Amino acid sequence: MTRRITLISHPERQDAAQTADVVAQHLTELGFAVETETAVDAAVGGASHAVAGSELILVIGGDGTILRAAELGRPAGVPILGINYGHVGFLSEADPDDIPQVIQNIVDGNWLINERMTIDVSVKLPDGTEHRNWALNETAIEKDPNAQMIEASIGVDGRELSSFKVDTVVCSTATGSTAYNFSAGGPVVWPNVDCMVMTPIAAHALFTRPLVVGPDSTLELHVLEDNARVWCDGRRMIEAPCGSVIRIVRGAAPVKLARLNDSPFSGRLVTKFQLPVKGWRANGTGAPNGEDKRLDAVEK
Q1: Distance set, CA 165 to CA 93, 186, 197, 244 (Å)
Q2: Can you give the residue range of the structural domain that contains 207?
Q3: Does 176 have pLDDT greater than 80?
Q4: Active site residue 15
Q5: Radius of gyration (Cα) for the chain, nearest Å?
C-alpha cells in the first residue's frame, strides 16, 4: 500500500516553495504519494477527507502555516510536522538544514505524537444566534476597528470576576502561551499542562492580571459596550456586537504534532527565544539528550 504525505508550504515565500518542490520530488522517488495543498483543496469530499489518508502533514513554513495545516489535521486526526521557514517557529520541529534527516525519519516512520489541547469558542449574539469555532493557540476578543475600546465583563465557571474597558482579551492554550499571550505579558506555560490562560491587554482597571484556569473550566466574556471581534488563531473571525456573550472551553479534539525527539521544552525556550543561558555543565549536572552541545551553540 502506497504511503501518503500531505505537503503544505508558505504561500508567499519563494525559498519555502522551492524547498517543498525538492522535498516532494525526494519523497516521490522514495515511493510516497505526495499530496500538495492545491490538490487537497480540490479533492472531492472536502480537504479534511483528502488529508485523512496521509501519515503526516509536512509543513514548510512558519507557525502561521502550521496553524493553516491544523485546520486540516485536527478534523482528520493527522499529525503535523513543521520545518521552520518563519521567524521564531515555535511549533516547528526542524530547521531547513535538518531536511535530509527529516526525510529519513519519515521513511523510517520515526516520530513521536504530541497531542496539544485546543479550545472551542462559542459566540452568542444578542438575537440568540450562536456561532462556533476553535483555536490551537488563542482566541482574541478585540475591539471593533470603529471602537476606541470595549467594555467587557469577564467570568469563570459562571461567576463574574470583574468588568473593565479594554482593547483586547486573549484566551490561550498552553501551546499558545508563547504567542500572543506572551507578547501581552502573560505567563509561559509548559505544553504538557492542560489549561487556559486569560490575559487582558490595556485594560482600565486594577484587577487585570492574567488568569490560569483548569481544562474543565469555562471562560466567559460579555460585551457590555461597543462592538467586538473574535479572532481564532488570527485566521477565523466572528463578529461580536454589543450584547454578545463569548464562552471558551476545552476543545473537543486536540491537534497532533509530530516530534522527532523528546528534548525538554526548556531547551526549545532557550533556542527559540535565544535566552542568555550559561549552561549547567560546570556544576556537574549536565543537560539531557545532547543539550550541552546545543547550549554551547547558543552561548556562542
Answers
A1: 39, 18, 19, 15
A2: 119-250
A3: yes
A4: no
A5: 21
Eight-class DSSP state of 260: S
CATH number at residue 127: 2.60.200.30
- Max intra-chain CA distance, the chain: 65
- Cell numbers that stand for 244 in this block: 454578545
pLDDT band for position 145 (cuts 50, 70, 90): very high
What does the chain come to in residues?
300
Q: What is the band of 283 on the pLDDT scale with cuts at 50, 70, 90?
A: low
Q: Active site residue: 15, 41, 63, 194, which one? A: 63
Matching residue, cell 471593533: 144
How many domains is the chain partitioned into structurally? Answer: 2
184 phi/psi in degrees, rounded to 5:
-90, 5
Question: What is the C-alpha separation between 5 and 56, in angstroms, rounded?
Answer: 5
The pLDDT tens digits of the residues spanning 104-138 come to 999 999 999 999 999 999 999 999 999 999 999 99
Same domain, 102 and 136: no
- Is 299 inside any structural domain? no
